[in-house]
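Hello Y.,

Per our agreement to keep a running log of every chain we model this quarter, I'm adding this entry. I've kept the format consistent with earlier entries: sequence first, then predicted structure.
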Amino acid sequence: MNHLEVKNNQCIPVLSIPVLGYEQFLEHNTSLLKESHYHCVNYYGFRFQGKIKLICCIANDKEGTIYISSSIVEQHQTLSSFTHHHLAFHIFEREIHENFGINYTDHTWLKPTRFSFNRADKNSTVANYPFYKIESEELHEVGVGPIHAGVIEPGHFRFICNGEQILHLEIQLGFQHRGIENLFLEKKKLLQRITLAENISGDAVSGHTTCFVNLWESLCNYKADEELQYARTVALELERIAIHTGDLSAMCTDVAYQLGSSVFGRLRTPVINYFQIWCGNRLAKGLIRAGKNHFPLHKTLCDTLHKLFDDYEPDFDEMCKETFTLPTVLARFEKTGIVTTEQASSIGTVGMSARMSGINRDIRSSHPHNFYSSLNHQPIIKNHGDVYSRAQIRKEEIKQSIGYIRKLSENIPSENKNRTILSPPSSDSFVISLVEGWRGEICHCAITDEKGELVHYKVKDPSMHNWLALALAVRNNEISDFPICNKSFDLSYCGHDL
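Predicted structure for the entry above:
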């Protein structure tokens, strides 16, 4: 058997994962991606008995299952690359190379990913990052960051331009590596680990925390009751509404449409303020916990949320009508920052960055968790891959999310005051958890030892897949279009750097 087939959040014995010879491992996993309904949700390595164990997780989006397989290789070994067969593996193999010194004979370009503290080559630093060069008297380079004019995380963008036209963009990250994955092993208390999950990416607190608690409860063989699942689903959709609204404001700012910037910005505020009312924090920190809920979403809170939507929707609809018909806005949104379906597919984009280019990729429908099975979620898909498509997805997903929350509120689960206590995590086990955050697919993986202690924890933010999409989007655009292209993706620096 070449792989083990599991469901989202299913706990399995780690020894049940097939161990293949590397060539068989490569052939099996790369051949799966020849079909469009398969995509790689995670591929990584960890130290195992003096060697490197590689685990590859391929999602079957048609069947709602995940194929898990593994291989054991030597550190500093030279291998044939998955990337040579499918570019979507490039970022995973770059990380494996950086962490363990494994080389590849035919990888596209083994440039650093995040300069982690435990990287194999300590001589590889941010200061000597190997930027791509084009020698020409007619071309020039433009550097932006890592210190930015606005309140933004550190990342460096290096453009190669012919006049105003962008020929190539390279995005250098890795300025703020915090060692999140290693801290999951060092911190032994559950609350400490949940706090880590809340701080993986500050604008995706509900997404990453839900992913962690779903995984942890699976490790503990704990079935979350309806009240817990209800609160997590509402939190995810409310976070989607808040961030999408704020991004529409920022996109209007970047095309100098002040009215849209102001109104969408104002509309975002009561949404995040609702989290403050619900749990005492505007980013939803403290809200989601494994096996418990300190802030039940009762009828009074739901009525407050419905009132918020009653006030929000008329202004939102009117502002959208103005924004999406205004010639000066459309002139900057339409046909700007295009990523074709072929490009999006080849680099393995996820979430909104996939759906903008006609790719049906949404964990809420393909691998549903919590209350999404009952919602029968239908992904919103556009086909032009431009700024306008990304703006339209935000607009329509906001309306869709409001509809979901209203529907869920028709049958509010009763507060569970007799909830069972979490058991210790299962020994020698593996769990993979997938959540569709507002950016896209979040993936956490965990492995325990014979005592049930975490020995490996792996985090993947959707930005890991999608930064390359931004670099492709700006090609042949004018450099003045970069801000709107960048904000239309709104990717996470810290979610990539970890």
